[in-house]
Amino acid sequence: MAPKRFIASMMRAHSRTPSRRSTQRTCADPVGNMASVNSSDWRAICEQFTTALNLTEVESRKDPENDPFRSKYKAREILREIYSALKNFEATEADSETSGERGEEQVVDGEKDGQCFYGDSPAGWRAAKLAAVEYFLGVNHIETEELSAGQEHLMNCMKLIDKWSTSSMNVSLVIHVKNQLGILWSGRGETETAKAFLETAEGTYLRYMKKEGSPPTDMTEYFSTEENQLTHQERTKRFELAYTHTKYYLAQVYQYLGETELSATYCHSTLQRQLQLNQFNPMEWALNAATLSQYYINKGLYMEGRHCLSAATVISGLAGEVPSEAAAEESEREQERRDQLRQKRADIARCWIKYCLNLLLDAKKALEDNIGELDGDRQEELKAARRAEVEEEEKSRKSALLFGSEDTFDSIASLEEKVQSLTPLDFTDARALFLVGQTYVTQAKEYFEMDGFVTDHIEILQDHSALFRALAFFEDDLERRCKMHKRRVDMLEPICNDLNGHYYLVIRRQLMFELAEIYNEMMDLKLTVANCQSDSETLDSHTIKKLNHLCGASAKFFEMFLESLRSPEGKLPEVLEEEVLRPALVARFRVARLYSRVICPVISDKLENLNKSLDHYKYVAQYGDAHPEASAAVETELELSREMVSLLPIKINRLKAQMISNN
Questions:
Q1: CB 3.0–4.6 Å: which of 122, 251, 335, 412 could bond 267 by disulfide?
Q2: pTM (2 decimals)?
């Protein structure tokens, strides 16, 4: 359900007939006593404040690299001058009140019977002005990497407005300062402290909106001339944006603390509010939405994940076209923008790949039997239940948190319709999802090329390979399934052979193991096809050659993986590290099995292969005996290896006897 949009009521204006001798207001200072000391001085302070803001927000972007804080240091000096002037005004005011000199000319519009504009006290307004300067000084010190000084100013700000923290004149400032303290403590690794400040900021916002509902004074208005006062709409926007920042920071804090569900909720709300307020950078927003989709995907919430990705794709389009290379050459800034746009769109494409892959894998998990093949009965059962599932999706779709505005919602919905969010139950649906994923593989590879992005490029290839493997599960034709696995070999084997094993050892091991498994799977498929096509138990020489080739290729890559475990001196580790324990023992087990499956017309060759097979089975069994903790990792393989260690010698002796008899 979309977050409630607060509709601010019109600001209450307290009108009164001006005093006969009231001074003309030249500044937006509801408490006339400060301005009355010297109206021209007060206007000068307002102008100084505007200058300090301009230095901080505009001029600082132009500062040279060798003096990056020049403008911020100038702004700091101006803020200090403003603070001193305010303290002098305060002292003058105190003297006037003590001596009873507060005259009728000091009473201005907005103040009557001790009450001032918005119903807040003069003391509160004086504190608010000083607190605002403390806040801006605190932010200034933090931005110039002087964190302790920044914290001191921020805490001074909190002390000054503690009595009026939920009043309309101070509530916006309170939320801003607590946001900053949250960021400060989070940067120091004190996440719980940061969380406390941010949750207090959120509570302040919620209490104020429940009680008042109208937009409060923005802290910049403390130093604005009357003609520069914010409109009701702008005041609302700034206040809502401050709270949006609170939710954004809380999303980060909850993520760090492992409260992922809460983090996702706040992240989703933040993104939605940014669109509503029209305060976002298209590419940054799109990348955050795509990242959020990964949370939903991992939770199996594909409808929400698809919505995030569709919104990311549409909103990223608002960033404009990628500049051409010719244009980029003319401007270094354009070249940098071009590269950033291409990278972020490639990152979004990678999130789409994960969406398609995970949905296919979840479908495979739901449909496979105990030997990993498609369960036809289960398939029909799920198909029968699909109609009710679609109807349920429609209901939940309407109550889901949706992104978009009138300009973008239709585009997002249109993109969503092109990609399914329900698990595919047959080859046709699986292929449609596969093709979507493959399209995004192509997009991602256009940026993450092998030359310059080795790790990223290979990860994309591995996802592409996994897409083929998931699709093959739904394919009934075994020959076509085998061709899909051959496509996986064609994309991974050249990379594996060319990859530098010294710099990319872990990745190369992954590729070796995957290639070994692919060849092994292809061999099983080819053998099944051959047995189905042949009327006799004897296979023709071409088929035998093909099966032995696949068997040998699988064993080769498993053995390459095992060789990669050797030390620089060429020794295998006596104790396998945890991250390679299972793959190493599984590789040994598979190699043992592969040697025993090689079809040999010559008995001596068969004996040689069986002895190699026995050696590998012995290694697995002996390692399990010597390291009982390994049993949990390879329970099935260990049990079968022990069994084969006792059975294979009998078979080997029979072959030896047969060979002697033949001679």
A1: 251
A2: 0.83
